[in-house]
Amino acid sequence: MSNAGYAQERETTEGKVFTVTGGDWDSIVSGVDPLHDERIVVNMGPQHPSTHGVLRLVLEMEGETVTEARLVVGYLHTGIEKNMEYRTWTQGSTFVTRMDYLAPIFNETAYSLAVEKLLGIEVTERANTIRVLMMELNRISSHLVWLATTGMELGALSMMIYGFREREFILDIFEMITGLRMNMAYVRPGGVAQDVPDIAIAKIREFLDFMPKRIKEYEDLLSGQPIWTARTKGVAVLDVTGCVALGVTGPVLRSSGLAWDLRKTMPYCGYETYDFDVPTQPEGDVFARYLVRIAEMRESLKIVEQAMDRLKPGPIMVEDRKIAWPAQLALGNDGLGNSLEHVAHIMGQSMESLIHHFKLVTEGFRVPAGQVYVPIEGPRGELGAHVISDGGTRPFRVHMREPSFVNLQAIPAMAEGGLLADVIAGGASLDPVMGGCDR
User: Does the predicted TM-score (pTM) go above 0.85?
Assistant: First the structure.
């Protein structure tokens, strides 16, 4: 048997090394007779404006009908999980935030909850409330990007402008709170990096006031529009049986009729105390996924409003000074840094505090040996953090169960037998983010 289609391997001083080549393309096209076979094989991507990132689809087609679809991922591989093994537990938050770059707060929260479970600690009430507040704002901003880009790909160009307009407002809120618009490393083991300033509270209130009207405008623009409905209704259908068999979660699963939402079924961060519904649709097509995400934005607004009412004064980081890092952060005129009082204390008044601060920042805290898996409900589905500690100051292993990666395997089931144009609609309806897929 020939090994031409398999990755070649060799032993080295570092262990077994595999050499992967592009042989997949040769094996696909080897049986095509260009003179007598009507089958054609085309590459869609990895540089394609409608694949929501650097995703490559190898499509076998007869005319405009897709007969076979194969996915090729890995073009955005960053090695985040491996890099975390060489950083402290707190620094890990700076890495995971860059995976799904449209939902950084969720990446940070899943990882931090896993580390806190290993440590056996509970964060403060205010820190939990801030986490919920930030996650739901992030859920809305992520769904807005989906709505904007999918609208553009299916012909509703104005939706792109409106979706990013509202997302910009949310990113302004994030900048006020964290100092950054994306990849904030704001949620950290033990709590959050700094408190929510009053100016951000006022900005969120303003957002809560106008956003329901904007969502209604999106519906007025799209829901009854003939082209939109023709491109989405009955397209890329995946029923609940297919979703469960493929491990598909999130809005795609709920649009097939199953009300599975980890905020309800396996609550975390106090979600069981919030009043909100889990939107579902029975059809399992692109239009149903659109309706579910629109409804989820409304439910997120309800949760944000409740979180705002719960923001009572209190600490935002655990009191244990062996874990809380960095300590005493403040937002000043010069940006983000340690408060002047804290700097004065460790530099001029207490040598012990300076030594502790130095060791905590450079070496980090120790986490008891063990392994945990903590899942949360991200904008795309179940985002899980599998974290292993050997008792040291750095993770032994971190692996994320990323919904974009898992959900993408549904594309062949949705695309094969349909038209090429429906590959765009179906793939977009999964809302994949390749930074999370290829982490």
Answer: yes
